[in-house]
Amino acid sequence: MEQNSAVNNPSPTPFAPTYLHGTKANLKLGALLEVGFNSNYSQYGQLNHIYFTGTLDAAIWGAELASGDGRERIYLVEPTGSIEDDPNLTDKKFPGNPTRSYRSQHPLRIVGEVTSWQGHHPEQIKAMKDGLAKLRDQGLDEIEN
Length: 145
What we know:
single chain, four-stranded antiparallel beta sheet, 7 strands, alpha+beta
C-alpha cells in the first residue's frame, strides 16, 4: 500500500502559530507576561506557568472569567521559550487539545491586542461561573502546576 507523502511529510508553512491570552490586565505592547504573579483567577494565587491558547474562543473565556474589575482584553502573545500542552485540559477534559491550550514557564511577549471580538452571552458566562463554583466547592478545581 502506497503512503500519502503529503500526510507523512507535511510541507512547511511560512506562518507562525498565533497565540492569545485573555485577561483583564491593561498591558503595553512589548510587555512580558511572566510567572511569579497572581493568576488571572485569584483563587489559584501564584502559578508556575503562564497559560495561553491558540483559539479566540478560549481566549475570550479567559478574559471573561479573569478576576478583577478591568476591561476584558485579549492579547496576541509570543512565547520566548518552550511551550507545552496545558495538562489541566489536554487529554483530561478535551482529548486531543481542541482548545489549543498551552502553558510555559518562560515569559510571553505582548505583540498585539485583539480589539474587536464578540463575548459569550451573559447566560453562558453565568452558567460557566456557576459550574466553576460548583467544582471549587467540591474541591475539584485544582490546577496541575
